[in-house]
Every structure is written in structure tokens, then in C-alpha cells.
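3.2 Worked example (two chains)
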Amino acid sequence: MVLFGGLNGTALDDTWVWDGSNWTQKSPQTSPPALDYHAMAYDSAHGEVVLFGGDSAHGDTWVWDGSNWTKKSPSNSPPGRYGNALAYDSEHGQVVLFGGVQGTTALNDTWVWDGSNWTQKSPQASPSARSYHAMAFDAARGQVVMFGGEIPGNYHFLNETWVWDGSNWTQKSPQTSPVGRSRSALVYDTNHNQAVLFGGHQNILNILNDTWIWDGSNWMQETTQTSPQPRSEFAMAYDSGHGDVVLFGGYADS
């Protein structure tokens, strides 16, 4: 697992890897600038971690090959943004990007990365503009799942569930659903064939530590004996080598 950057008083530009028991800091020859509010996804077709976005409306595309970061020079690229989400769609062999904020304007554009270039998609239906939403690829159903997010400026927190099939977005209507939230994380657990949602902001004051499972049509809340403390703006990824969803960092309060 790979971790890059984040915020600790100031933005960071360090790269760390997790082997299932320990963190090791890497010393790449080249590296993205210090960033927070960026998004990353593993592109298994090309064996690279893809990074895009970040404060302040960062618009460069970087890839990590296991030892070094390389800045890509695509002929076409999304405009710079932060608070966006990325997920790797293994059904179509491409990284999917949705939304985020540019300046004070929320975006609802959909882009895909094929390893060398970005292409903007023109779906018939699309989620509303938002930022700090959570997104993951549901391998059992071959679609990207997106939940929540916020509309910048008015602190409206969304509880919508959308799925992307490679060409179009469809809003789902689950019988039960998590409360609206932003700055949470969603990860697909291959070992149990389910997407796992954790935490985030319910509103400006309330931070969550609930765990929810998506089965393709409905959300179910998990009752766990132990749980991380309430937090937002953390990172979460699935460690296929050890069959674990791993969580790191975040904000516990203001």
C-alpha cells in the first residue's frame, strides 16, 4: 500500500509504503509537490498508482511505479481541482475521476485515464456537482460505486448512491442508507466481495465512526466490537496481500 502527502499543519510530500506490519518511508528521485485533498488509485493494467488533484486546484497527473514518481504529460487533462475522487475500473481498464472543487466551484465532470491520456466522458445522466465524496470499484458487479459528498459553500451533505458502468451514471435507491456525509472513505473488500464505507463528516459539528457495507443494491450497517474513533479526511485502502482494509490518519475534531 502506498501513502502520499496530506496535511499536518502544512501540506506534506512524503511517500510511505505499508507491507502489512510496518511503514517504510521511500526516497524517490522525483516527487509530486506537497499536497492535500488529492486522490489516488492503483491502475493494475499498467502497474502504477495514479495521483491527480490536490489543494490548490492541482492539475498534474503523477504515477508511482514502486520506486519513483513520474509526472505525466497527457495531451488532454481535467482542469485542476481538489476534493475529487478516483477509482480504478478493472472492467474497462481505466481510472475514473469524478467531481471536486476548482476555486469555489464544485464540478460534476467524469474523466477516464487509460495510462497515457485523459478522456472526458459525456454520460446521459450524472451526479450533481460535489466534492469530498467516496468512490470505489465494485468488482463483483463490475461498476464504480460513489457515495455522499458535499456541496461547497452551503455545507449540504449528500447521502446519494451512484454507480458508473463505464459509460453512464445511475442513481440507486437502497432501502437503507448511511446518513449524508463527506470526507469519508469507501473501499472494496475483495475477500468478502463487498464495498466498505467508514466515517466522515455528517455536518460541520458531527464526525462519524460508523461502518457500512454495500451489497450492490442495499447498505447494511455493521456492528463491530472495536472501531476507530470518529474521524474525517483519512485514507483507506484494501491490502490484497493480507486480506485487510487498512485505515490511516484523519481529523478527529476541528
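3.2.1 Second chain
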Amino acid sequence: SVENILGYSPHEVMGQPIVGYYSFPEERNVFLEAIQKEGAVENFQVQFRRKDGATVWLSVNARLLFDDQGRQTGTHGIARDISKIKKAEEEKAILEKSLLQSQKMEAIGTLAGGIAHDFNNILAGIMGYAELLQLDLARSTTSRFNDYLGNILAAAERAQHLIRQILAFSRQ
């Protein structure tokens, strides 16, 4: 199993301290504290370094061994390669994050669309009354007021263009 999972032959690991195979040696102390406290550990997840330098995730089940007098004599355990499971969990987390971002963008689009429609309704009223006033003033007074109204209508048309852009965004 050591050879299949870590790439080392059994004679390469015999007599070697196991802490040397941990990707993060401080995790060995966490493991030892857990097994000393409970007498056993189940599904202790840890990263080990393979012979080729790659990392592998292991799930370790282990228990302490005792002699007839109750003295601790060793540890017996089984490690299972869970690298594929960990990779799938990471991919799932990335997909969930992407989905959440998409949902946020959809909500922003919906909000922008609602605001744009409301603003467009208000703007339509402003433009309508400005055009009516422009028609009335064209018949009677100076062109100065027509210039002011022309500026109002031009600004309103720019606002309408902006609304169309917001609505295009919200549809995406």
C-alpha cells in the first residue's frame, strides 16, 4: 500500500520516522494529540508527500496498541487515499462559488432593470412635458427658452441612451 500510495518501496520506509512523509510535519502532533486523548482516531485527514514530490490526501483510522500490563506499545492504523474525493470537493466549492457569483449578477441585473424601467417612466413624463412646452413657446416667445428646452431634451435623450444600456446589461 505504501508503494501504491506514496511511491516508496517497503524497505525505503521501514525504520524511518513517519513525520518525514507529512506535507506539514506539525500535523503529526495534531494526530498524536488526538490519538492519545481518545485512544483512536477515525477519518483523520492529512496530506502526505509522495516520493515524486506530489502530495496525496490520506484518511487515517488508527488505534493505540497496549501490552498485557496496559503499557502503550505502538499504533495500528490504516490509511486510505482520498485525493480524488478532496479534488472533487475543491471543484464543487469552486462551482458553488461560481454559481453564487452568477446568482449575484442575476440579482444585480434584475435590480438594474427595475430601476431603469422606473427611471424611464419618469423621464418619459419629463420629455413629454418639455416637448409640449417647446411647441407652445415656439409660437410665442424668444428663442432663449427654446434653447433651454433643447438642452433639457438633449439631456433626457442621453439619459434614455443610458437606460437602454442598463436594460441591455440586465438582460444578460
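3.3 Remarks
Residues 151 and 157 are 10 Å apart (CA to CA).
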